[in-house]
Design a protein that fits this description.
about 500 residues; mainly alpha; Fumarase C, Chain B, domain 1; 3 domains; 8 strands
């Protein structure tokens, strides 16, 4: 029988004692302790968050070298090590659960240890022997988990906002193209799920595009808030252990590295405990999720049936709709996107509660805020893309069905109210409904309006935009014997 090979380990020491760490691990004893303690979800840090940590560490090393606090040889080794983190070449070394000790200290130390080991190897040293580069004394110089974690959360969100904003704009454009293509197709407008007044598909789809544009503006505002960072505030925002010039220079270096117009926060103390900028980003995602969910619900309703529902839209078929009903096709893409929207709303509730939990000088809930933000950002990016490419770009208006619905409805009745009055028009609608007759037929039978005039008043396309009231016509129609006789009957 073959004997199982024993996994090789190395022994590291810290203030709590000694611990075995996998011999080939780029992380060290702090990470190993956290890995053993916080095995909660199996979820790992997003690559954007790992990149953000690498960028922060590179900016810090450059700044400390410039200030004469780090020997150039060590600083450059650290900088080269951070390049591997920034390019996601060592993501497998970031092994910790996203649910962990408060303020993100385990994630932060995971980065410090990985970078220290990479730097030491480049200088001829060994993993786990933190000489000449130490994770705390050198990689973490002038920093704390309490300013690094919120900064990394902001940078990760900024990275992930870019593709989401692009997808929102593309979906907006897709709806605006549909609006132009179906600009003159008049359909029943509905309120309270009941027939209301005519509207065009151009107006409906144009409204969808405008709602997405507004949601996109919300993302832009959130992005502007996230550009203000508290790096250099260290433990409670006072900057203890950091050089007096570190904060300004480190933010400048980080702006250059990221290509973002970052700026130091006006109050590092406030930024250490106040997660409002991240909460506002989550709120912008909530707004987008609400809009997208509403659009999906509309698409499902307008495509319902197809024979026993509204049936105004034909959505692309992406899969068979049933395991038991042959030929059934479901609006699967809008359904999936609505599920994403629901999850984003839940994530936002978690972010809001976590942001509220910033007691005294620190918010210890930043890890869950960061996780829910990057999850929502990625979910929405994928969902908006899916909705556009597998649904909106391929949907069609069933014009014959829409015309039948318009002709068989009473949606033109509101156009008569300015001329015949609310009460008279209501009585005519009631009679048309009761007798299941077209409104035009009922009006002509009572001799209230001449056929040519009635056709003009009830023209569906004319009812989809404001019309000047013909006061002379109203006076004439209300002076006829037929009108006066109907008024007496009401």
């Amino acid at each position: 029988m073959r004997r199982r090979a024993r996994r090789r380990t190395r022994i590291e020491r810290d203030s709590l004692g000694v611990k075995a760490v996998p011999a080939d691990a780029l992380y060290g004893i702090f990470t190993q302790r956290a890995r053993e303690t916080f095995a909660l979800s199996g979820l790992r840090a997003h690559p954007a968050y790992i990149r953000a940590l690498g960028m922060i560490k590179k900016a810090a090393a450059e700044t400390n070298r410039r200030l004469g606090l780090l020997p150039p040889r060590l600083a450059r080794a650290i900088e080269r090590a951070t390049d591997r983190v920034i390019t996601n070449r060592v993501d497998e070394a970031f092994v910790l659960d996203v649910f962990q000790a408060g303020a993100g200290t385990p994630h932060h130390m995971n980065a410090n240890e990985v970078i220290a080991n990479l730097a030491n190897e480049a200088l001829g040293g060994r993993r786990g022997v933190y000489d000449p580069v130490h994770p705390n004394n050198h990689v973490n110089l002038g920093q704390s988990s309490n300013d690094v974690t919120p900064t990394a959360a902001r940078l990760a969100a900024l990275q992930l906002l870019t593709p989401l904003g692009r997808e929102v704009r593309l979906l907006e454009q897709a709806f605006r193209r549909r609006a132009r293509a179906d600009a003159r197709v008049v359909k029943p407008g509905r309120t309270h799920l009941q027939d209301a007044v005519p509207i065009t598909f151009g107006q409906v789809f144009g409204g969808y595009g405008e709602a997405l544009a507004r949601a996109g503006q919300g993302l832009d505002r959130a992005r502007a808030d996230l550009l203000e960072i508290g790096l250099g505030g260290t433990a409670v925002g006072t900057g203890i252990t950091a050089h007096p010039r570190f904060r300004r220079l480190a933010v400048q270096a980080l702006a250059r590295i990221t290509g973002l117009p970052l700026r130091p926060t006006r109050s590092p103390v406030e930024t250490t405990w106040n997660m409002s900028a991240l909460a506002r980003c989550s709120a912008a995602l909530r707004e987008l999720a609400l809009v997208v969910s509403k659009l999906c619900l509309d698409l499902r309703l307008l495509a319902s049936g197809p024979h026993t529902g509204l049936g105004e839209l034909i959505l692309p078929a992406v899969e068979p709709g049933s395991s038991i009903m042959p030929g059934k096709i479901n609006p699967s893409v809008p359904e999936a996107v609505q599920m994403v929207s629901v999850q984003v709303l839940g994530n936002d509730a978690a972010v809001a509660r976590a942001a509220e939990a910033g007691e005294l000088e620190l918010n210890v809930m930043t890890p869950v805020i960061a996780f829910d933000l990057w999850w929502s950002l990625e979910l929405l990016t994928n969902a908006v893309r899916l909705l556009r490419t597998r649904c909106v770009e391929g949907l069609r208006v069933d014009r014959r069905r829409v015309q039948t619905l318009v002709e068989g409805s009473l949606i033109q009745a509101t156009a008569l109210s300015p001329y015949l009055g609310y009460d008279v028009t209501a009585s005519l609608v009631k009679k048309a409904l009761g007798q299941r007759r077209p409104l035009r037929e009922v009006v002509l039978a009572r001799g209230l309006v001449e056929p040519a005039v009635l056709d003009r008043l009830l023209a569906p396309a004319a009812l989809t935009h404001p019309q000047r009231l013909d006061v002379t016509l109203r006076r004439r129609l209300q002076a006829t014997p037929a009108f006066k006789a109907l008024v007496k009957q009401i």
